[in-house]
Amino acid sequence: MAKVASLMTRATGTAETPDFETILNALVSTIMVISNDGIISYLNNAGEQLFQGSASHLTGQNINLLIPADSPILAVLKQVKNSGTAVSEYGLPLETPRIGEHLVNVYASPLPDHPDFVILAIQERSIAAAIDRQLTHRGAARSVSALAAMLAHEVKNPLSGIRGAAQLLEDNASDEDKKLARLIRDETDRIVSLINRMDIFSDGMPFEHEAVNIHQVLDRVRKLGESSFAKHVRFVEKYDPSLPFVMGNHDQLVQVFLNLLKNAAEATSGSGSEIVLTTAYKHGVRFAFPGSNSRVHLPLKISIQDNGEGIAKSIQGYMFDAFVTNKPEGSGLGLALVAKIVDDHGGIIELDSHPSRTIFHVMLPMDTSASKKIKKQ
Ligand SMILES: Nc1ncnc2c1ncn2[C@@H]1O[C@H](COP(=O)(O)OP(=O)(O)OP(=O)(O)O)[C@@H](O)[C@H]1O
Ligand SMILES: [Mg+2]
Questions:
Q1: Which residue has the higher pLDDT, 226 or 296?
Q2: Ligand 1 centre from 312 Cα, in Å?
Q3: Which atom of ligand 1 is nearest to the CA of 310?
Q4: Residues 18, 142 within the same domain
Q5: Among 263, 360, 361, which residue has the most ligand 1 atoms within 8 Å of its CB, making it the best to mutate?
Q6: How many CA atoms lie within 13 A of 7 on its CB side?
Q7: How far is the CA of 212 from the centre of ligand 2 (A)?
Q8: How many domains are contained in the chain?
Q9: Do both 76 and 174 map to the same domain?
């Protein structure tokens, strides 16, 4: 405890440099330092508010006083203690009689040079924000699958009957009526081809999983963009050269990133248009899906950032739904397809949109069958 106290006060306050304690107390996240035997050694102001107790009362107490013994947060602390590496978990429940129910993101890390302590950062997230972040695209993926299945069964079959009947009528009709019968046939063909485009959304189309080099996917997508919809864009690549392979389907992932890149390019205009493609390996990032106790490890993070106008307020929260678009020529199927494919891969999409900075993060599972690392092409 003394060690940690000295850590906190090492930088003494001056007019220019606030001390560490002041900085930690200004944060909205809870910061705690916990010894390996579970004793709270430090708690910042945000922590006092979250746990509704003063730091002077809570320091020196056991963490079990604040966090129930069966909480996944304690499992995270244990994991950090055992592995010696930092762990982040999103969307964990924190439920105690004292503070009620909260949904939190947790980051826990060993303290370099202080092996007997773990630092724990807890960020509260409103349940609405969590659902928005994790579930919009999953919900959209499910509803679009149901829609596709309905279209295939309830609409396509009767349409082939209508088309056949129109064709029979056409054979025996007067010239005038032939034109109308042909119109019926052509328009039914047009509807059938639209429904066929939706087929890709229906469930039950198994696809092969393989080890995919995501940089190859991004290069292909970028080249396609540069020769068509993204001619006006300057690309910046920030790739992690030692990124492992993604577990997925190459062609479907091309589709995902093509749609995201096309949207990013369409959101920008003029000579200052820029798209930043980033890949990163996020160690220890796991996601808890509401309704399930298991947490999935999605360490590969691929981000597409543009400096366009941002997502229009009117469609925020809906843009993964099919047919949601604010473009005159848009079908509104691009992001619905992204949602469906990422969901099929067991991945997650996060979205961060502000004017001049919209980022889609796609988190995907790693291929564990091979320990190959990929090189930037
Ligand atoms: N990077 C982005 N910046 C701003 N708005 C975006 C971005 N990506 C998506 N959107 C918004 O989300 C809507 C839905 O996107 P989606 O890709 O599903 O359809 P679309 O691009 O309109 O049509 P399509 O992809 O079929 O050509 C877009 O119309 C746009 O308003
Ligand atoms: Mg699109």
A1: 226
A2: 10
A3: 4
A4: no
A5: 263
A6: 14
A7: 23
A8: 3
A9: no
| Distance separating alpha carbons of residues 126 and 115, to the nearest angstrom | 33
Q: Which domain holds residue 269?
A: 210-364
Q: Which tens digit of pLDDT belongs to each residue from 297-335?
A: 788 999 999 999 899 888 887 888 878 899 988 888 889
Same domain, 114 and 12: yes
| 332 CA distance to ligand 1 middle (Å) | 7
Instruction: Give the closest ligand to the alpha carbon of residue 197.
Output: 1
Helical ranges in the chain per DSSP H: 2-9, 20-26, 45-51, 55-58, 72-83, 127-150, 157-172, 175-198, 214-226, 250-267, 334-344
Residues 278-302 pLDDT 10s: 999 987 666 665 555 566 678 899 9
Is residue 326 one of the residues assigned to a domain?
A: yes
The type of residue at 236 is V
Does some domain include residue 357? yes
User: pLDDT tens, 66-81?
Assistant: 998 888 899 899 989 9
On whether the pTM is more than 0.70, the answer is no
Which residue has its alpha carbon closest to ligand 1 atom 5? Answer: 311
* Ligand 1 atom 7: residue of nearest CA: 263
- Domain match, 228 and 352 both: yes
In a domain, 97, yes or no: yes
Least confident segment among 25-39, 152-166, 221-235? 152-166
Whose alpha carbon is nearest atom 12 of ligand 1? 319
Q: What is the mean pLDDT of residues 17-35?
A: 89
Exposure string for 72-88, b = 16+ CB within 10 A, e = fewer: bbbebbebbbeeeebbb
Residue 327 lies in a domain: yes
The residues lining ligand 1, judged by C-beta closer than 6 Å to any ligand atom, are 259, 263-264, 267, 306, 308, 310-312, 315, 319, 324-327, 330-336, 358
Find the CATH number of the domain harbouring 221.
3.30.565.10
